[in-house]
Design brief:
Chain lengths: ~270, ~325, ~325
């Protein structure tokens, strides 16, 4: 099967970003988070490819650390959300009793409608003393599962109307077997696309609340870098690289993940 | 029979789909002549190449569809001749389509723009081909619609507000707007129920009798062919196997495939056992050698497996491509 | 022990449309049918949108009717005990219109064949293989060309025959076939319909759902004509189609294009059906609006089925003949 050029390029970029985020940190000559390890406010140069920050950090290595944390956080959120979406969505799609059906649908729909960002800000603020990438991931997961659950539920409801479901029943197969054998391939394809979308969403969300200072301040994330950059008024002072490189890398990551999810959905015929 | 002037001449047309794994030989050396003032039917089952053939006549050749060989010449009423096989899409779009030849694709009624009212469909076409302003278009459209016996309200409606049958009649009316010499209709009523089908086809036939132009109706439904068309051609696996007047073909089918198609038609009031064909139509990526029907033909001879028969005139106006006839 | 294999009593199913789906229209409206214990081919004929597919799903027990009941050997299909339900699924099988949807596009087709053999017949793998081989032979396919393949690897005609084979494997007493040949090439249709005729000789009943009256005539014993969710005429196939008591039946038959009918087909004036949804909602006869013989009574009151010889017709014009 021919691999289209777009897929090759997308995978190439993602691979580079992953190397940058996960492999490179092992080669860091110093702990990039510590302040005053390098001369301050140096613009990008050969020695410091991304420049240095006002508190004396090497932005290149710092960004690599931060990207790793952001990605891990994103993966954690996406995984938890996808698992919950799978369980709740499947349950909602199959449950028979009218009351349980209404209850589950109400639950899922409410979480879809509750505005996520304000609640997340409140939670992050309340627990700001304990915030770590893992805790943030958990908090984000509280809302991440809602829309995917809804989609899994509609996916299952529509699968139940298709002729091959009837054929299965007429062939003597029970609903359990139909779920795992007939429906699962469809659900998994959908969840794969959804996973990438959630990954993007989580990273973006974390960055957003971090810019408000509501993220982890010990560990570096893309958002926290931007936070500190703004705190030190880097743009006003002309230290443009402090904000630019993290944002640039974030943008590249999000766009390529999005492209990847588009390619996957085209390939599998999922919307 | 009627005034026998030719409006379209297809000579040795070879076309198909160039895919990465294979070439699909959908139109294999087809030669055909269409006359003015007739309804010509092209019959055949799925995969026989009739839709592809219609597209090549129209000149709508876009990859993966390619025209490998052959000529298609259109002789317009005012004496203008167009060599469709060698004209570019751009030229055709500007000068030939809608004016000299129209095309109604399958499921055309779903091709209407759902966000535009019917009168705006007219306006768009009038603007593109005659540079008319909206108000003039609307007036013209109204007269035009009325001349077809369609209600005025149709113009102010959106496509989804009309029934399927009404939509199809609108599409037919649109295709006849500039009184083209040829109208190509690909399965014009396959999505309609039997009653709406009749209304639409009677409508089409009335229009043709008034304009005295040529309409080509592609349909797998032999019943539709028998009541609507004057002459017809039967296609099988990319080849034309029989051409003749519809009545003659139904009374005296010569090609074994035609015979089988007609014999397997169920008729109301007749419960005698019908027999279909054995096997199935060939894969056009790898068609059988010789006559393409030979694997399923109950009368095949050794020569049928080796050489392809040619289309010969068996009786006046009745052509067959079969070794049994030679 | 009931006399009837399958019975539908006054079935109705409503679907919502419009704003929030609040307006309800009956896709199936007061439909009653019987399938006796002797083999019979009953055709339910009508145009698309007349409710026939919904009716099929209700008869198969896949959808619950809003009104009325479907009885399998006298018992409500939605209230069957486990063992009875299993027998119901075995004895009442189905064939669907689109063979490519009948099977999961992502899975191999033979899983359904072997599944049916094992679950419906209760045989072991070896015996199942033999049975599958035999039934595939019956429909004209060899087991070698069927195993290990996904739906896309077959032509429409082949796949539909596999679908029929699967239904036959269960040794059913009744097969509900929803437009089984409309997606098949014309030259291959007859082979499948002849197969149905032969199976009826061997004791299998069919409910054949179609819009094609010509094939309906060809294979049916009995025919029910549906219009907008209602049965407007029902009786022996030849009597219904040749006498055409109900105006709708008459229009349907006259609209059939057939060789030799050219003159009349082109000449007669036909009133095409109007806006569908409106007709579904009227309280009187649903056909009254376009019927050439309608009267005041037709518009106000819905006619019941009147007997005219062996045929039942829902038309006020036949009231006195009952």
């Amino acid at each position: 099967m021919k691999i289209p050029l777009s897929l090759k390029i997308t995978l190439g970029i993602i691979a580079s970003l992953l190397i940058f985020a996960f492999i490179l940190p092992y080669f860091a000559p110093y702990d990039p988070r510590r302040w005053a390890t390098v001369p301050r406010d140096n613009p990008p140069s050969f020695t410091y490819p991304f420049g240095t920050t006002t508190v004396g950090q090497d932005l290149f290595w710092l960004t690599s650390y931060a990207l790793r944390n952001s990605i891990i956080l994103g993966i954690l959120t996406a995984s938890i959300s996808v698992m919950i979406a799978f369980l709740l969505g499947s349950l909602a799609g199959f449950v028979r009793g009218t009351i349980s059906r209404y209850a589950l649908t109400l639950l899922i729909d409410s979480f879809c409608l509750i505005p996520g960002l304000p609640v997340l800000i409140v939670l992050a603020y309340s627990w700001r003393k304990f915030l770590s990438p893992v805790l943030i991931a958990l908090i984000l997961s509280i809302f991440g599962w809602a829309w995917p659950s809804r989609s899994v539920r509609s996916l299952i409801l529509s699968l139940r109307e298709r002729s091959f479901t009837y054929t299965s029943i007429l062939s003597g197969f029970g609903m359990m077997r139909i779920f795992f054998y007939e429906y699962l391939p469809y659900i998994i394809r959908w969840l794969a696309v959804s996973f990438l979308g959630l990954l993007n969403w989580a990273i973006g969300m974390e960055t957003t609340i971090a810019v408000f200072g509501l993220s982890t301040l010990e560990e570096a994330t893309i958002g926290s870098i931007i936070y500190w950059a703004l705190q030190y008024q880097s743009i006003l002072r002309g230290i443009w690289w402090w904000v630019t490189f993290p944002i640039l890398l974030l943008a590249i990551l999000i766009v390529t993940l999005y492209e990847l999810s588009k390619i996957i959905s085209e390939f599998t015929g999922v919307k | 029979m009627k005034n026998m002037s030719i409006v379209l001449k297809c000579l040795n047309v070879k076309g198909g789909y160039e895919l990465s794994e294979a070439y699909i030989d959908a139109v294999s050396n087809v030669s055909l002549e269409l006359r003015t003032n007739e309804i010509f039917g092209i019959a055949g089952e799925s995969g026989c190449g009739k839709s592809t053939f219609i597209k090549t006549i129209y000149g709508y050749i876009e990859p993966p569809l390619i025209l490998k060989d052959g000529t298609i010449e259109l002789y317009g009423r005012n004496g203008k001749t167009f060599n469709i096989s060698s004209l570019s899409l751009g030229y055709l779009r500007k000068n030939v389509w809608w004016k000299y030849i129209s095309y109604i694709p399958q499921n055309a009624m779903n091709v209407l723009n759902p966000t535009m009212r019917i009168r705006d469909h007219f306006a768009e076409i009038y603007k593109e081909h005659m540079g008319l302003k909206k108000r003039d278009s609307y007036t013209r459209a109204q007269e035009y619609i009325e001349s077809f016996g369609l209600p005025n309200e149709v113009l102010s409606a959106f496509p989804h507000q009309l029934s399927g049958g009404m939509r199809q009649r609108v599409v037919i009316a649109l295709s006849l707007l500039f009184e083209p010499d040829i109208v190509l209709a690909d399965e014009p009523t396959s999505a309609l129920d039997v009653i709406n089908q009749r209304v639409s086809l009677v409508f089409l036939r009335k229009a043709q009798r008034k304009l005295k132009n040529t309409i080509v109706v592609v349909s797998h439904d032999m019943g539709v062919q028998s009541v609507l068309t004057d002459r017809m051609g039967i296609m099988y696996a990319g080849k034309i196997v029989e051409i003749g007047e519809t009545q003659t073909i139904f009374e005296n089918p010569l090609h074994p495939y035609t015979k089988m198609l007609i014999k397997s038609l169920p008729r109301l009031g007749d419960k005698t056992r019908r027999v279909g064909a054995k096997g199935q139509p060939p894969d056009l990526r790898n068609p059988p050698p010789g006559c393409r029907f030979h694997p399923r033909c109950p009368y095949s001879k050794p020569i049928c497996r080796k050489e392809e028969p040619t289309l010969l005139e068996a009786e006046q106006g009745h052509y067959v491509s079969c070794w049994l006839m030679e | 022990m009931s006399e009837l294999l399958l019975e539908a009593r006054n079935l109705a199913k409503y679907f919502g449309y419009g704003f929030l789906g609040r307006t309800k229209f009956p896709a199936v409206d007061n439909v009653s049918l019987t399938m006796e214990n002797f083999p019979k081919i009953l055709t339910i004929a009508g145009e698309s949108g007349c409710g026939k597919t919904t009716l099929a799903r209700i008869l198969l027990g896949f959808i619950k009717p809003d009104e009325g009941v479907v009885l399998y050997k006298g018992k409500n299909v939605h209230k069957l005990k486990r063992g009875e339900k299993k027998l119901f699924r075995k004895e009442v099988q189905a064939i669907f219109q689109d063979p490519y949807e009948t099977f999961n596009p992502l899975k191999k087709v033979d899983t359904y064949l072997f599944g049916t053999a094992k679950h419906m017949l209760g045989v072991n793998s070896k015996e199942a293989f033999a049975r599958v081989e035999k039934v595939l032979e019956f429909v004209g396919l060899s087991i070698k060309e069927v195993v290990d393949k996904k739906p896309r690897e077959f032509s429409g005609g082949q796949l539909q025959r596999i679908s029929i084979a699967r239904a036959l494997l269960a040794e059913p007493r009744l097969i509900i076939a929803d437009e089984p040949v409309s997606m098949i090439d014309v030259s291959l249709r007859m082979n499948i319909l002849n197969m149905f005729k032969d199976l009826r000789e061997e004791g299998v009943s069919f409910i054949y759902i179609t819009h094609d009256l010509a094939t309906a005539y060809y294979i049916s014993d009995e025919i029910a004509v549906m219009y907008r969710g209602m049965i407007v005429e029902i009786g022996p196939a030849s009597e219904v189609l040749l006498n055409q008591y109900h105006p709708y039946t008459k229009t349907l038959v006259k609209s059939l294009p057939e060789p030799g009918k050219r003159e009349e087909w082109l000449k007669e004036k036909v009133n095409p059906p109007g806006i569908e949804i409106k007709e579904f909602l009227v309280s009187g006869c649903k056909y009254a609006d376009i019927c050439p013989n309608s009267s005041e009574k037709c518009i106000k009151e819905r006619p019941p089925l009147f007997k005219v010889g062996n045929v039942k017709v829902a038309c006020w014009n036949y009231q006195d003949q009952d």
